[in-house]
Amino acid sequence: MDRMESMAMQNYREFIGLYNRIAQNCFESCVIDMSHKSLSQEEELCVESCADKMIAVNHRLMSVFMEIGPPVDKQLGLSGVQAGM
């Protein structure tokens, strides 16, 4: 596996991990009644709202990271390769 494939695989693993954490968090917060195989309207709205909020927070964190990451890397003397980019 070359470096690009390795980086793509790492990105995929991180994405799947994030997806699983969002699903777990929203499930635990929103799904109350396990006696039906379908979500109630209230549970469905809660899950949608929860996922939207978690995704928005993730996007905000990534934008802040992209703002402060490169200057901090430069201060630490890290190049893109050393910093994991």
Description:
The protein is mostly helical and 85 residues long. The chain has a single domain (2-76), classed as Helix Hairpins, CATH 1.10.287.810. 75% of the residues lie in helices and 0% in strands. The protein has 2 helices and no strands. The chain has helices at residues 3-30, 41-76. The two termini are 17 Å apart.
How are the secondary structure elements laid out?
Layout lengths: L2 H28 L10 H36 L9
Helix pairs in contact: 1-2
In short:
With 85 residues, the protein is mainly alpha-helical.
| Poorly predicted regions | none
Report the count of strand segments: 0
Number of domains: 1
Which architecture per CATH? Orthogonal Bundle
CATH top-level class: Mainly Alpha
Largest sheet: none
Assign a percent range to the helix content: over 70%
CATH evolutionary superfamily: Mitochondrial import inner membrane translocase subunit tim13 like domains
Per the CATH scheme, the topology name is: Helix Hairpins
Overall 3D form:
elongated
Distance between the termini: 17 Å
Strand content: under 5%
Computed over alpha carbons, the radius of gyration is 18 Å
Order of helices and strands: HH
Briefly note the structural class of the backbone: mainly alpha
Question: How many DSSP H or I helices?
Answer: 2
Average of the residue pLDDT scores: 88
Subunit structure: Heterohexamer.
Protein name: Mitochondrial import inner membrane translocase subunit
Family: Belongs to the small Tim family.
GO molecular function: metal ion binding
